[in-house]
Amino acid sequence: MNINIEVNGKMITAKKGETILSAINRKGISVPTLCYMKDFVPTGACRMCVVEVEGRPNLITACSYPVEEGLRIKTHSPRVVNARKTIIELLLSNHPDDCLYCERNKNCELQTLAEQYNVRERRISGAKNLYKVDQSSASIYRDPAKCILCGRCVRVCEEVEQVTAIDFVGRGNKTIINSAFNKGLNVSSCVNCGQCIMVCPTGALHEIDHVEKVLSAINSNKYVVVQHAPSISVSIAEEFGLKPGTDVAGVMTAALRKIGFKKVFDTSFSADLTIMEESAELIQRIQTGGVLPMFTSCCPAWVKYVEEFRPDMIKNLSSCKSPQQMLGAVIKSYFAEIEGIDRENIYSVSIMPCTAKKFESQREEMTQKGVADIDAVLTTRELVKLIKMYDIDLVNIEPEVTDTPLGTRSSAGKLFGNSGGVMEAALRTAYYKLTGEELKNYKIDEIRGDDKRKELKVSVAGLNLGVAVVSGLTNAEELLKEIEAGRSDIQFIEVMTCPGGCVAGGGQPITFDAKRVKARMKSIYDIDKVDSIKASHQNPEIKEIYEKYFKEPNSEKSHHLLHTHYQKRNVLK
User: Fold this and answer.
1) Which of 35, 63, 299, 502 is catalytic?
2) Would residue 278 show up in a list of annotated catalytic residues for this protein?
3) Buried b (16+ CB within 10 A) or exposed e, 337-353
4) Which of 52, 103, 207, 281 is catalytic?
5) pTM for the whole thing?
6) Residue 24: strand pairing partners
7) How many helices (H) and strands (E) does the chain have?
8) pLDDT digit string (tens) for 414-452?
9) Residue 502 is among the residues annotated as catalytic for this protein
10) Domains and CATH numbers, the chain
């Protein structure tokens, strides 16, 4: 049913049940928000979206008020503009004055609103919040003094990820968003996914920075190498004025060499390696009556969630390391040996769309004789900083290819950037291992797209296999409860913590534009469409590393370097 309302003197058609904000946004009319997030139940807490409705004594929050027939709305009347400006001034009254040094300078919603509403002086002075900065986490830096209490991080952590590592504490002007018992994030239930960072409007949350230590390594006598994850090349273009989703793999590789990395490898290679090991493990579990369903272990936030909230299901996790950690281990063993380099002199950097990878790289299990497989992890955002620091023209630089023998990939490995990509890559290779034949159609539509839960039943060589793909830990938990209740028709489950997969990871460029994330996803599917090597087992460098080094998947050597174990974690909840 349609409803007619008047906005700024013009009639528009709204839908019954929708909010004023939804109706006016569809018509291209913008009002500012701070607490509002699309697809979440609105709270109207920040009051930035207030509008004036004729006949109503008070201003109304557009995000939470439903449309009514005949409403006459003004979105920018003097009264409304003055109210918004006052809210901004109140938020700034006790905010730190360090915009020039802030991580979010020029990309801060509060700063942008202050500029838009012409706030040019401190008219209201408030007592500064002298809260202690929390740097205890391996992944996330938290500065409560910059928090404006919008609550977005709390809602994402609770409603999307079901972790609830942070919440509102205290009352009135003593309210703060904090972890349990005012302890550090390192002892909280935080899984390091970084989705809180993605929704934070200010610099209250950001990743633990590794740029300086990478620069220090590059300028030392260390042999510094770098790997980049499948989704990175389709995610950074938008930060340099290019169309979102543009694949810049070649020019990114060239830029990394200009920065000073001696070798540039592709994590999609080790994604192929992961598939070889993981598919072999799955087939072995099915054929020998092992623990099922088997869960993927590529996502470190998901692994930590299982360790904390579902320790009884640790046995269901694949023992395979993630592609980042596999390549880190291979660089400091296989690559070090064939190049004649002391493994302790190699400084291995990874570029990831994920803040949880920083935590993963520091896990004790990810070391060999006290030497870490990965020495530093840069997010996509940190890579952008590095490229801009070196003033590299990403638009006009000549593209280059990644280095051998760890740089060739299949398009299946590239699919790891999307939710469902690990599953699709695994099914392509599992089918070949079970039948000796290639799939007639490599594309598996049922597990593609941005739906947060997908299921598929397949029959291969007389084996009936049920698979599921979920993203977002709330969706994963729902599936775990079904399994707990006795559901037994699923043997293999892919879980990614970030909704949509790594293309929307906690280390990616901060954006509320879902179209950008979809553009990244589409770009990865387009790469798969045109690439000639479409399955992990077809990768010539994968064949070579097994012939020369590992012999076969799940061999003794591969178990030593490419597999790991997990542990129950006792944390504050």
Assistant:
1) 502
2) yes
3) eeeebebeebbbbbbbb
4) 281
5) 0.96
6) none
7) 19, 19
8) 999 999 999 999 999 999 999 999 999 999 999 999 899
9) yes
10) 2-76 (3.10.20.740), 91-207 (3.30.70.20), 212-562 (3.40.50.1780)
